Amino acid sequence: MKQFRHNIIRAGLDALYFTGAYHVLRPIFSGIGTIFMLHNVKPARPDAFQPNRHLEVTPDFLRATLRHLRAQDIDIITMDELHRRLTAREFGRRFACITLDDGYRDNRDFALPVFEEFQAPFTVYVASDFAQGNGRLWWITLERLIAQTDTIETEIGGVEVRLDASTPAAKQDAFDQLHDLMRALPNGDDLPRAMSALCARYRTDQTAIGRELCLPWDELRSFAEHPLVTIGCHSITHCILAKQHEALAAHELTISRARIEAHLQRDVLHLAYPYGDRASAGPREYELARQAGYRTAVTTRPGMLFAGVADHLTALPRVSLNGNYQDDRILPVLTSGAATAMWNRFRRVDAA
């Protein structure tokens, strides 16, 4: 089902490109700017089973993106400058912000050199538990666990699950089913509890994967000193905030910020909601972010920026640079706003 969805999205992007429709739609739907969303930037992997491929782009695709933005005479700016322009209602030039979620080492090792080539600033949103070394990258853990076995047996939400994982296709199906089941669990602590049980059964250390892949405080400190880098907050545990009691959701937003500021000795003024979709962050979370003092907060809801978002600074949309669609010809379609306009049924602001 997910592959079918990917195929439909790709077909839509190709149609907008080959028909030239994006040229016609750009003046109407490109808006005043774009916030691009990435996670991992690293060389392509040859593995047949890569369920998290959508979260990974290559340095070459990042380079192509920045080259395209420069060629379009789009300003690449910091989140601080975005906040200034939106609050000042300064919409004379189109702009783009580049953001990366979670705080991976590859952001420094592979992404930073590309940003330096273009002297392009970017923001990395850090989950403090990942920097602390006790965070749980459960989606990557799930991928690695399934990659190493031919059958998955576990209990999720009181239901015993047994899935074939003997081939790459079966592994993909198993991942999709388990991922969806865990994301659908109703309570805030259900997902980590289910993953802990699964890891205990298969003798997998979740926190070791986080320590392997994420920047710890000492490395993050030197990374944050780079003039192109802004560090933002991504909560403490990377939980689904909308499923937490309000006090705990507020704690995730305030304590993580305080920890990052204490370790890095710099202000943290910008937030990315974990997961960031409609089921994970909504009006309550937008208000909590505002009360916590964040200047901006970004979602994963797809969309370009229009003047109206200046009234919703803690509900900003982003455009994903998706690893499934790493094709240079997609870039002018994305920056035209045509794809997100169709996705949003031509609404310009989606903050409800």
From TrEMBL:
Give the GO terms filed under biological process for this record: carbohydrate metabolic process
Top-rank taxon, per record: Bacteria
Molecular-function GO term, any one:
hydrolase activity, acting on carbon-nitrogen (but not peptide) bonds
* Record SUPFAM superfamilies: Glycoside hydrolase/deacetylase (SSF88713)
* Keywords of the record: Signal
- Tell me the ranges covered by the NodB homology domain, including all copies: 91-296
Q: Which CDD domains match?
A: CE4_Mlr8448_like_5s
Which family would the database say this protein is a member of?
A: Belongs to the polysaccharide deacetylase family.
What does it do?
Answer: Is involved in generating a small heat-stable compound (Nod), an acylated oligomer of N-acetylglucosamine, that stimulates mitosis in various plant protoplasts.
- In Swiss-Prot or TrEMBL terms, this protein is called Chitooligosaccharide deacetylase
